Amino acid sequence: MWAYFKWEFKQFFMNKKNIAVYVILLFLGLYFVLKVAPSYEPIEKVDVAEMEARFTTRDDFIKSVEGKDNIHPSVAFALAVFPQWNEYDRARIDAINEKDYLKYAEATAGWYLYSDQLTVNGDSFFYNPLYYTYGNNYAHADGHYGYGYTASRFTGYVEGSSELSMELFEERTALQTLQRMLNDYLPIVLFISCIFLSVDIVLKDRRNPSLLKGFPISDWKKLLMKGLVAFIGSILSFVPLYVVLIAIGLQNGFGDFSLPVPIYSYIEETFTNTAMSTFLLKNVLFIGVWFLFLIAIILFLSIIVKAEFANLFVSFIIIAAEWFYFERVMGAYSDIERYPTSYVQVGQVISGYRNFVYQSPDLTYQHGLTIIGCCTLFLVILTLIVSKFKRFKLIA
């Protein structure tokens, strides 16, 4: 069996199609470093000019109405809340000018908490205008999430021991960039790579039937070795990420594994911080289980249908299915957490953002691992049973 594994391993990495997949991933990484990462503009960024303009506007208002009698209730409300708001902004401005980043983090955490408290349940104030672009019907909810996320993140900086910097505040360091990528489309890119790397892992044997008959092992063991090789090959699709992380780290710093990553809890409706190392490990584990699930689908289809198109079609349907039924808040009236396709956005599931947009208390990392793991186990057992029938032999 070891000889067969080595033969499959060699065939996998000499496959021109697989080499092309790795090269494309490398070019995508370089494109991200040269074009995408430099153009990143966070909604919640460090903008001293904006802080000063906001502070001056409120300060002028306070001076113009302070001490007057018979003022409108809305003016009285503004007069009551503006001084505390300005105190936070003044502290933030002074901290930036003094380059006291710990003081800035502390004042910023307070500013976002205070701003969210004033905005979330009222219509007197609004969140950052960038949340309201492109006709976003859920801008207020997104602003509430964004402010809570930012407040939790800066609270983590105050309580942690990480070396603070402007790049860290705007999430531009290498590890924070990786975190953002995992919360975006990186998992989908990796899943598509896994599909292309594995799609012909069984069907290519039709090109060397006589040679393969020389390995005296059962079809089930051959399928097991093929799955193992495909899994190793899929894991290696992470390698181009190292190029991205090194390049961004040299420009903006690498960050460290103790950085706080806010995790949203739908049940408690609040954020708690976890370490960057924990967040990344959970993503690697979840993506690994997804790799096994996709490979199990391909192995099963390869011995049943025996057509690469079927492998591609079904696998891509699994990846894309959520786009057809996705609707915000639908978790409140449907069992969306039971569908394995609801867990494709791995980073968003772990961070709790998917839990937030679906408003489903059960759309969690633990539930997702259970669902995907059980589906994988079911397919593996089914493939084992089917491979025992002569009709579905790998080589006739």
From TrEMBL:
Top-level division of the source organism's lineage: Bacteria
Transmembrane segments: 20-37, 185-203, 223-250, 284-304, 309-326, 365-386
Keywords: Membrane, Transmembrane, Transmembrane helix
Record carries keyword Transmembrane helix: yes
Protein name stated in the entry: ABC transporter permease
Record organism: Psychrobacillus psychrodurans
